[in-house]
Write a structure and sequence with these properties.
There is one protein chain. By secondary structure, the protein is an all-beta fold. The protein has one domain: Sandwich (Jelly Rolls). The protein is built from no helices and 12 strands. This is Cupin. GO terms for molecular function: metal ion binding.
Length: about 120
Amino acid sequence: MAKKSVLNAEHYQWGDACDGWHLLKQENLSIIQERMPPQTAEVRHYHVFSHQFFFVLKGELLIEKDGEEITLSAHQGIDIPAGTTHQVRNESSMPVEFLLTSQPPAEGDRVVVKKVKSISTVTL
């Protein structure tokens, strides 16, 4: 049995110089260690099927969940049920590292959502 770490896991880059390492990549479960440099963010989105859990290892992560902003510090986590709009941001001056567990894996299950200031700005 091989031990997994960022040293031997499949690596990918996403967003604005952010890193991810697939620690577990199975059909029904995904665990990824991610690193976000200071002042970076992902797009606001939701997943149709995937239930996620974010757990901070180092630093501070701001998560917007259904419009509410929640700050997580090291050794704190939060779950994001399928269908819940969310966005993670690192607004601090230090990198943040966290684990992202998704069941089932979220790859190909992202619906991007634009933040709307008022209903009058929406065109159908």
